[in-house]
Specification:
Elements (H helix, E strand, L loop, with lengths): L1 E5 L2 H17 L5 E4 L6 H12 L9 E4 L1 E3 L10 H8 L11 E2 L8 H15 L4 E5 L20 E4 L2 H7 L12 E4 L2 H5 L3 E6 L5 H8 L18 E6 L7
Parallel strand pairs: 1-10, 2-3, 2-6, 3-5, 6-9, 9-10
Antiparallel strand pairs: 4-8, 7-8
Helix pairs in contact: 1-2
This protein binds 6-O-phosphono-beta-D-fructofuranose (F6P).
Pfam family, one: Glucosamine_iso
Family: Belongs to the glucosamine/galactosamine-6-phosphate isomerase family. NagB subfamily.
GO cellular component, one term: cytoplasm
Length: 241
């Protein structure tokens, strides 16, 4: 893993944007793995700016999001479908049929998870997977204890994750109890991973990741075994290293 220490959130976002633009400008059919949450919002703003400045086109790009809540209508402002459309897709001219998220409203969720996994496999490897880091070490919605061999699946969200995400909802009771997420093995098959980490609240999680011990109790620790991981972290997130 390569750690790129930057001064602040904006620099983290800008650096990540440059890596992505470089990739999509030099790949004929690039596949991006995308994340939600607060962390990648700045990256998406930079990507939009690059598109507006004619530095990048997204016509030929395919995307797969890591996860989606179960049971939120797509039009709900907390669904990840809504998030991606509002914060990125509708601003960059990407054909919407080339963007993919798991359907958290599918009648058969297990089947949906398996179909999503198959679609990723058919499209080919994800070229760059963007990840955020959960306070408990989750990546995607793979909570502590998830087998490293997992593929896209339905998960019961940890109370700590529901609490962390309650800030986006009117109360914790509104936060869904389940989600569909790419599995850890699915994520590990990406050619390249960029993990974004910002703020002091993530310092302990980043320190645990960097200490090198690989354990299913801390899902992100598996990244120590991936051959091509770049961590872009700001000074505050690096404060416990
Ligand atoms: O970026 P945040 O909001 O701190 O969240 C960390 C991670 O947790 C999630 O919100 C849940 O998967 C991810 O989308 C994100 O990468």
């Amino acid at each position: 893993m390569e750690l790129l220490k930057v001064s602040n959130y904006d620099e983290m976002s800008e650096r990540a944007c440059s890596f992505i633009i470089e990739k999509i400008n030099h790949t004929s059919l690039p596949v991006l793995g995308l994340a939600t949450g607060s962390t990648p919002e700045g990256l998406y703003q930079h990507l939009i700016r690059s598109y507006q400045n004619d530095e990048a086109s997204f016509n030929h790009v395919h995307t797969f999001n890591l996860d989606e809540y179960v049971g939120l209508p797509k039009a709900d402002k907390n669904s990840y479908d809504y998030y991606m459309n509002e914060k990125l897709f509708k601003h960059i001219g990407i054909p919407r049929e080339q963007t993919h998220l798991p359907n958290g409203n599918a009648p058969d969720l297990k089947q949906e998870a398996s179909d999503y996994e198959s679609l990723i496999q058919q499209t080919g490897n994800v070229d760059i997977q963007i990840l955020g880091l959960g306070l408990n070490g989750h990546i995607g919605f793979n909570e502590p204890g998830t087998p490293f061999s997992s593929r896209t699946h339905v998960v019961d969200l940890d109370d700590s994750t529901r609490e962390a995400n309650a800030r986006f909802f009117s109360s914790i009771n509104e936060v869904p109890e389940q989600a569909i997420t790419m599995g850890i093995e699915t994520i590990m098959e990406s050619n390249e991973i960029i993990l974004l980490v910002s703020g002091e609240s993530k310092a302990a999680a980043l320190a645990r990741l960097m200490d090198g011990e690989v354990s299913e109790d801390f899902p992100a620790s598996i990244l120590n075994r991936h051959p091509n991981v770049r961590i872009i972290a700001d000074v505050a997130a690096c404060s416990s290293l």
